[in-house]
Amino acid sequence: MSPPDTSFAPSENIAKLKESATIAVSQRAKALKAEGREIIDLGAGEPDFDTPALIRRAAQHALDHGATRYTATEGTLALRTAIAARATVRRGRRETIAPAQVVVSNGSKQSLFNACFCLFGPGDEVLIPTPSWTSYYEMVALSRATAVAVMGDPNDGFRVTPALLTAHATERTRGIMLNTPVNPTGTVYTRSELDALLAIARERGWWVICDEIYLRIAFDGDATSCLDVAESLDRVVIVDGVAKAYAMTGWRIGWTISAAPLAKAMAAFQSHTTFNAAAVSQAGAAAALTLGEPVELVVRAMVEQFRARRDAAMAILAEEPTIRVIPPEGAFYLFIQAPGAGRVSDAGTVFAAQLLEKHNVAVVPGAAFLAPDWIRVAYSTDIDQVKTAMRRIVTAFRAR
Ligand code: PLP
After folding, report:
1. What is the number of the ligand 1 atom nearest to the C-alpha of 132?
2. Distance 212 CA to ligand 1 centre (A)
């Protein structure tokens, strides 16, 4: 008798799933560091700051006072009330957002997946302004819908326009994944641009998932939220969380704000996958949203540090006139065209490998965002490291 076949054959659900390229870069950088190399890791999109002390203390207090048990699937009423209250302020006089419209998840990544999975299915097409965060394509595919990349104009920060969207739409188009400020380009959509995108979606009956995880990190005044401009939230899902603005990546708290029936469906779905986000993390997130000015001061100080790093990085890159960078208006990324773009196939991957192996700088190849001629550089590390890394990038450009 032949031995049983123990090899793993993935199910059809994940047969085409790709590993997250950003996580892969980070792991390679860590492995090289472990070998003693002095790598500057500009791969991961994670703020280097500690969570503000006031938030940590509030969570410690909550832990000692019962935040150790299951909560409602959709999150504690305290946190959902805080989220709804903030959203209501942004909605202005249009409407009051109720806690029943909020679902809290284990990071905004789960919130995005909940929304994709509950809204899209076989036969549906979903427009994804590109380049975009790598997970959108996979989340849409995991929902068994088809991701349709809509490449923005590199001369306009890779923004997409209603005309570009409609050029890619078919009768099967069911939704669009919006993100502002954009990972990986740092582009921030203006109020009128966002208004126009929401208007075309409304006209066509598309669902809009607005990923606003970087909204607080914008350098030219407040970035516009879909909450500020959407006429109605009937077909809009706002996705946000505490990870980036409050330096709380490891707490894993994100949320959706949507019409109540969709919120109910997403909570039902989550009740069978992960159930509630950690009670203590929810308490920390509630503190972040309700402690007011003392926490907001820290957030503003972090944003100022991101701005200083961006300015320092751009000043160094400007010393080499052949370097093309998308003007970074928010988030903490630089999207840089790789040398050899247009001549070498997958120039971004080639350049990222060179930067890592010869210049000890880890960045993410643009192929991860469907823009293979580019690289993404995260400046979410201290300013001296950012400056050193930028000098190395300039050296690498000049060496080619
Ligand atoms: N959305 C975008 C555009 C991101 O870049 C990230 C993380 O890198 C996320 C969502 C996920 O954030 P969270 O930590 O809240 O899951």
Report:
1. 3
2. 9
Which amino acid residue places its CA nearest to atom 11 of ligand 1? 109
Question: End-to-end alpha-carbon separation of the chain, Å?
Answer: 60
Query: Virtual CA dihedral for 93, 197, 45, 370, nearest 10 degrees?
Result: 170
Strand pairing partners for 210?
Answer: 178, 238
What CATH number does domain 21-50+295-399 carry, 3.90.79.10, 3.40.50.720, 3.40.47.10, 3.90.1150.10? 3.90.1150.10
Taking only the tens place, the pLDDT of each residue in 28-54 is: 888 998 999 999 999 988 999 999 999
254-257 β-sheet, strand order: 102-105, 254-257, 236-241, 207-211, 173-179, 125-130, 146-151
Ligand 1 mean position to 400 CA, how many Å?
34
Q: How far is CA 35 from CA 30, 32, 39, 388, in A?
A: 9, 5, 10, 21
For residue 107, how far is its CA from the centre of ligand 1 (angstroms)?
8
Q: 68-291 architecture in CATH?
A: 3-Layer(aba) Sandwich (3.40)
* Parts of the chain with a pLDDT under 50: none
What pLDDT shows up at residue 17? 87
The most distant pair of C-alpha atoms in the chain lies apart, rounded to whole Å, by: 74
Q: Give the contacts of 208 (CB within 8 A, at least 6 positions apart).
A: 175, 176, 178, 197, 198, 201, 226, 230, 235, 236, 237
Considering the chain, what is the average pLDDT of its residues? Answer: 95
The CB of 108 under 6 Å from ligand 1? The reply is yes
Contact 247, 303 (CB under 8 A): no
Residue identified by tokens 């503000």 is 52
Residue-range domain boundaries for the chain: 21-50+295-399, 68-291
Asked whether 215 lines ligand 1 (CB < 6 A), one says no
Residues 218-265 have pLDDT tens digits of 999 899 999 999 999 999 999 999 999 999 999 999 999 999 999 999
